[in-house]
Amino acid sequence: MAEHGYDAGRLNLPFVGISTFGKRPYEPDWARLDADVAILGAPFDAGTQWRAGARFGPRGVREASTLFSFGHAGAYDHEDDVTYLPGDVNIVDIGDADIIHTDTEASHANIERGVRAILSAGALPVVIGGDHSVNIPCIRAYEGQADFHVLQIDAHLDFVDVRHGVRHGHGNPMRRAAERENVTGLTQVGIRNVSSTAREGYEDARAMGSAIISVRQAREMGTRGVLAQVPTGARLYVTIDIDAFCPSIAPGTGTPSHGGFLYYEVLELLQAAAERHEIVGIDLVEVAPDYDPTGSTSILAAQILLNFLGFIFHARSQL
Predict the structure, then answer these.
(1) CA-based angle 117:124:210, to the nearest 5?
(2) Which of 33, 58, 97, 268 could form a disulfide with 111 if both were Cys (CB 3.0 to 4.6 A apart)?
(3) Tens digits of per-residue pLDDT, 149-170?
(4) Is the pLDDT of residue 2 over 50?
(5) What sign has the CA pseudo-torsion 299, 219, 76, 309?
(6) Phi, psi (5° rounding) for residue 304?
(7) Domain map of the chain by residue range?
(8) d(Cα 278, Cα 231) in Å, to the nearest integer?
(9) What are the backbone dihedrals phi and psi of residue 2, each rounded to the nearest 5 degrees, phi first?
(10) pLDDT grade, residue 8 (50/70/90)?
(11) pLDDT of 59-108, one tens digit each?
């Protein structure tokens, strides 16, 4: 049978095949990882205080990411005149951490094990949640690693200490991060409106080294002003809650909050962060696909992650 198209072999269009992230290779053996980037799903949402559904976030984001997987050798950006994620950037999908229903601690331990495996392989961990509590085992996996700063992009502060005995829910992760010895501080951007954290939580966050910036303040400060809150030369872990975005473009989340960021505001912040800092880890959380029948929220999440990875590895190539 004659071949059609420009390339030999299968065309492998986005809607064909099994949905790994960006249609990248699947590596189920965590002891054999050999990659620049490893994608780990963390489909856990038992830390949620209102609408559940983020357990389906990894599947939704993976499926959406196939939209950007036409098989070309990288992604050319005509504005930057750069081809991002060329063929020599090796991205693999290692599947999901095993989640045990009703058992937060065991599920979190399995997520931590996945991130540790990625770090042991010298790859960049990218974790797709899941609710924001999955950040707790992600940060815990960096025990023994060099110091780093956390950049949080989120509508909510997530700095609750303990609420009715709960320490590891999706309202606690930034408090737990601030307690880690190798976390030097936090820059919390997008925080707005009625929050899950009471006033004393804000006071505690500032006392523990946080800079708290609302959407309106971030717009007034600009990208440079926001990143001025991050210590020069700091290694950076970036945690992105999809509810940082306005629900007009990201309705598929459990706790939407109006007045959020638009796409380019976050994209430009991430690009500047990648240019100025070593990015040591990423998680993107709280995508709940069932609340968005259009699929736009999952597409936004996939697009943000792929662009951010492009910025990171382009910046590394310039060193």
Answers:
(1) 105
(2) 97
(3) 999 999 999 999 888 888 888 9
(4) no
(5) negative
(6) -60, -45
(7) 21-317
(8) 12
(9) -70, 145
(10) low
(11) 999 999 999 987 667 899 999 999 999 989 999 999 999 999 999 999 99
For the four alpha carbons of 223, 229, 231 and 232, in that order, the dihedral sign comes to positive
Looking up tokens 């290692």, which residue turns up? Answer: 94
The CATH code that applies to domain 21-317 is 3.40.800.10
Residue with tokens 């963390």: 42
Distance between CA atoms of residues 42 and 120, nearest Å: 18
Residue 304's closest CA among 276, 275, 262, 260? 262
Supply φ then ψ for residue 135, to 5 degrees: -65, -30
CA atoms of 70 and 58, how far apart (whole Å): 20
Task: Write out the two tokens for 56.
Answer: 């389906």
Got the DSSP string for 299-317? HHHHHHHHHHHHHHHHHHH
| Residue 148: partners with Cβ closer than 8 Å, 6 or more residues away | 142, 182, 183, 184, 234, 235, 236, 237, 280, 281
- Of 223, 161, 136, 143, the closest CA to residue 187 belongs to 223
| pTM reported for the whole predicted model | 0.95
- Report the DSSP beta bridge partners of residue 42: 129
At 311, give phi and psi (nearest 5°): -65, -45
Neighbours of 157 (CB within 10 A): 25
